[in-house]
């Protein structure tokens, strides 16, 4: 039986964090210090979790972190995951979300191992602004090289994610529009969510979708593109069809009603939503000797508890105890 929650949504998309370590300290995510660490599991454990999930109807697997490219053995792990097949006998859609710092030298082996798509985080096309946000003085050129390498080997569509924060990079919206058109990549703007370690989020810092669209239209008129039902981004192109912009707007325009995602943290906990207040210890069950069938039953029970929606901006909203880097993006 395919994985389905009590709201009738089929769960087909697994996001699995393979580390909570990161070589960046982005202001919307990490503190300026090292921050608390949880753990990393052996790849054999992650592979077993993925295999159980695929047996329940998962069709897409996205590797996240932290920064997943920090893990030795990731190429072999991608190869092992790529050997699995969906319930319909099809290859899995395997993707990665990375800050791109190490990507240029690894993208070829990853593609050969079975990686299909890459999403690269890049919060400015101006090196000085990039350094201010990431707190990494000389990372911009590495990330740009990673984006171009991903495109060169065919991990397309290459998506470039930009988290917008007022006072930091809202002036980059038009520059990113040009970047999409010049580089042939999909740029996706993401509204800042309350998942940062420093707990500095407030509605005033969010650059909302309507403002993004207003600035894009001042550059060139935009038109909306069709969306897949469970797609998180609203997609746009310009009047001449050149370039693509996505806007992920969980704060101003939530898309929870079509959510098909479930997450596993780097220490093996299931999270049914980024904003869940509870973890579900899948790794603990494995350590206690659970069979694959017992793990599958547990996953079904957890998925049935998936929240109908998040409650950002509502009275009584409680931020999750873990930040994004410890949940997995």
Tell me what you see in this structure.
It is a single chain. With 329 residues, this protein is α/β, with parallel strands linked by helices. The protein has one domain (13-327): Aldolase class I (TIM Barrel). Helices cover 29% and strands 17% of the residues. The chain contains ten helices and twelve strands. It has a twelve-stranded mixed beta sheet with strand order 7-8-9-6-5-4-3-2-1-10-11-12. Helix 6 (173-183) links the parallel strand 5 (159-164) and strand 6. Helix 1 (43-54) packs across helix 9 (292-303). The model has no long low-confidence stretch (mean pLDDT 88).
What's the topology here?
Blueprint: E1 13-17, H1 43-54, E2 60-64, H2 74-82, E3 93-98, H3 107-113, E4 117-121, H4 127-134, H5 140-153, E5 159-164, H6 173-183, E6 186-191, H7 209-219, E7 222-224, E8 234-238, E9 244-248, E10 261-264, E11 269-271, E12 280-281, H8 282-287, H9 292-303, H10 324-327
Helix pairs in contact: 1-2, 1-9, 2-3
Main sheet makeup:
12 strands, mixed
The appropriate CATH architecture is Alpha-Beta Barrel
Number of helix segments?
Answer: 10
Helix content: 25-40%
- Under CATH at level 1, the class stands as Alpha Beta
Residue windows where pLDDT falls under 50 for at least 5 positions: none
Distance between the termini: 27 Å
- Order of H and E elements: EHEHEHEHHEHEHEEEEEEHHH
CA radius of gyration: 19 Å
Task: Give the percentage of residues in beta strands.
Answer: 15-25%
CATH superfamily: Aldolase class I
Helix vs. strand class:
alpha/beta
CATH topology: TIM Barrel
Give the beta-strand count. 12
What is the 3D form? globular
Count of structural domains: 1
Strand order of the largest sheet: 7-8-9-6-5-4-3-2-1-10-11-12
Mean pLDDT: 88
